[in-house]
């Protein structure tokens, strides 16, 4: 855990720990939250539904990422759904009233809270930037770099294995293209010996990083 404020609350046992199983809803659409959430272990997705009923995967979060920090300022009712993707996702929940009292006692922690809020919004900003890219291929490249940081296994000089939380249908949803388009791009990368893709296992080769290192930002 990298935030002093949340560390203090955990040390003082001023939090609640919940375990959510795969496909279990952490927070449902329309739920009004008065908590800040820290993912201690596991993976979750934030999604919503279009008017025709299509699910849109907005954000993928993993260990040591925070959501709900804006609830410290307002009682926020989200239109999104928060769902566990892991077999088990451990989430620490912090009551906003306790956070406010803790900051009031130690005003220096307000800066730490702003850091928490900033990291959450940076995740949203990065996601928006990815979706603004016109090229589906470049969107996939950006997401592969994102997944490398979040889900990549041990590095070696030639490749890295990514244990993706999304299958190909879900990955297509995440970059907002059809599965056919995603499959064509993956086949192109595979034919060029840049990666190997099998279900949720993605092996990214050294040549991929060399070819697209300018997008790793």
Automatic annotation (TrEMBL):
Query: Which residue spans adopt a coiled-coil conformation according to this UniProt entry?
Result: 114-141
What is one GO biological process annotated to this record?
regulation of DNA-templated transcription
Q: Name the Gene Ontology molecular function terms of this record.
A: DNA binding
Looking at the record, the residues that make up the HTH crp-type domain are 134-208
Using the record, list the residue span of the signal peptide; answer none if the entry has no such feature: none
Keyword flag Transcription regulation: yes
Family annotation (SUPFAM superfamilies):
cAMP-binding domain-like, Winged helix' DNA-binding domain
Q: Which PROSITE patterns match?
A: CNMP_BINDING_3, HTH_CRP_2
Q: Which residues form the Cyclic nucleotide-binding domain?
A: 20-120
Q: Which UniProt keywords apply?
A: Coiled coil, DNA-binding, Transcription, Transcription regulation
> Which protein is depicted?
Crp/Fnr family transcriptional regulator
